[in-house]
Amino acid sequence: KLPRLFGTADVLDEARKLYSTPESDRALEYVKTVNPVGSKHICDELNCSSATVRSEMSTLEDYGYLEKTHISSGRVPSEKGYRYYVDNLMKQEKLNGNDMMNLQIIFNNNKLALTDCIKKSLEIISDITDYTTVVLGNKSSDNYLKKVEALPIEDNKMLTIVITDKGFVEHKKVDINNISLDEIQKTVELINKLLIGTPIDEVRKKLELEIKPIINKYVKQHEAIYNAFYDVFNDFTSKNVSFVGKNNMLKQPEFNNVDKIKKIFDKFESPEVIDFIEEDKNDVNVYIGKETKLDDDVTIIKTKYKLDGEEGTIAIIGPKRMEYNRVVNMLEFVKENLEER
Prior knowledge:
Elements: H1 14-18, H2 24-27, H3 29-33, H4 39-46, H5 50-63, E1 66-68, E2 75-77, H6 79-89, H7 97-107, H8 114-129, E3 132-136, E4 145-154, E5 157-164, E6 169-175, H9 181-195, H10 203-218, H11 222-238, E7 241-244, H12 258-268, H13 271-278, E8 284-288, E9 298-307, E10 310-319, H14 324-340
Antiparallel strand pairs: 1-2, 3-7, 3-10, 4-5, 5-6, 8-9, 9-10
Helix pairs in contact: 7-8, 7-14, 8-14, 9-10, 10-11
């Protein structure tokens, strides 16, 4: 009977009806403000007495579904309360119109490479929710080099681009002081001629042992150009996790303690946390508080996607009071559209 994230709550069945009405936004007041909702507000919404509200809240607290942050505070959902909501009360609904429109723009752009599609969709989710998003790509060993490009983009700078047969793209902006475009193009042609079809994890080794001696013969500024391409290949094979909107955690009142947020940021780099985010489970999975191995005030919602035999993980990290239904719907939408590409 636990209603949806009131922040101070009774357990009347009528609470469920509240969420199918325009007044449902008010039920999310605690999610948005982090302030427990007063019992008077609940009495007004549900047309019941304050004695009923106090009695029901006391019962919920006894069962562990509500808790007080301190002695004189209002009651807020406990970790057990959030879990009960997610497992029993959360409705499976379609993504709301605005969220769908923002994300659909990305998936309708057929010019976007897969990696850009994933990154941009998570950037949008991070922007509109103020949560942190994470993408863990599949290991690069299953990718083969398809093409290398180099594009001059401004004075003394170029964009080096690596594309794999699976549609993954890595690019890096590098300085090209005193390097002619002809020599850059000559290097690109050599790499494409000699390395296309090479497993991406083997490219750096071949570039060093086989391609560098050839570049030395034909390219004057060989060291600078070689380093530029080596760096972009190195980024491709070593970068397996990307956080978007990490600083959004600082916007959440739960994390305004410097020591606390530092511990969370340190754990973002922890292999244990990364492995946990990447663990192999199907569907969309919700981990609350202690379940996250990150922080008691954090929720991680994640899912795996599969595309042409490739697997990756996308996740959203936010406060425990996050809008669960909205986030789950967003992840399901991204997963479906990635797998349809």
